[in-house]
Amino acid sequence: GQEYSNDVRHRMGLSLRMTANVASSVRDAIAEYGTTILVLEWPTTTSPRRHGLTDLTRQLLSDGTTDLLFVRSSPRAQNKVIAPRSILASIRGGPGARAVAYTAAAVADVFGSVLTLLHLQTDSQHPDRSRREWNSFEEIVDELGRPATIVTVRRRDTVARGILEEAAGHDLVMMGSRLDPSKPNMLIGRDLDRMLRHLDSPVVMLRIRSAARPEAARVSAANGHPG
Questions:
Q1: Integer Cα distance of 226 and 223 in angstroms
Q2: What pLDDT was estimated at residue 183?
Q3: How many CB atoms lie within 10 A of CB 158?
Q4: I want to staple 120 with a disulfide (CB 3.0 to 4.6 A). Which of 34, 162, 195, 220 is the partner?
């Protein structure tokens, strides 16, 4: 919970539902409350609720009705409250880059955290792609307009290695999910999945809702036609 000044009233609602189909009930709640972002436990291999969470995640990914925030607590302190003093946000320049940056900035503002935006490039990338992602990253930094934000640019063999190295000393790592139309149910690649097992800090991953929509539907919507 968060404490607010007396002139601002925020309320936390509690909804209890008995159901035989968790995914269906979650979708009903999303529609009922007009939910725009849903926070879920990340279905990692060590989670005791992994199978149920994996099934729920797959159904929600295919729906694409809301942004999804997956939270993985610290492996060494799974019940510890996440109240970061320092946040590392990995921003590469893909479709969800802005959402990750703005969400990280919002969390940093709530907790008074030091925010570091990390841009990673790899030698295996085509120069044109590296250039596009760098231009996008610069635009995002300018749009945020947060003078206190630390901007870090690194070149590493792999993105996973870069995040693992830069995460040291940070209380929270934020990143975007994999956006691969051919594998819509895959949240991250194998390298990042292996990296997470060696990462002690809590991790928050954002999956933007547009990632679940077929490419043709996104193009149609962009042209002013309903998908």
A1: 9
A2: 63
A3: 16
A4: 162
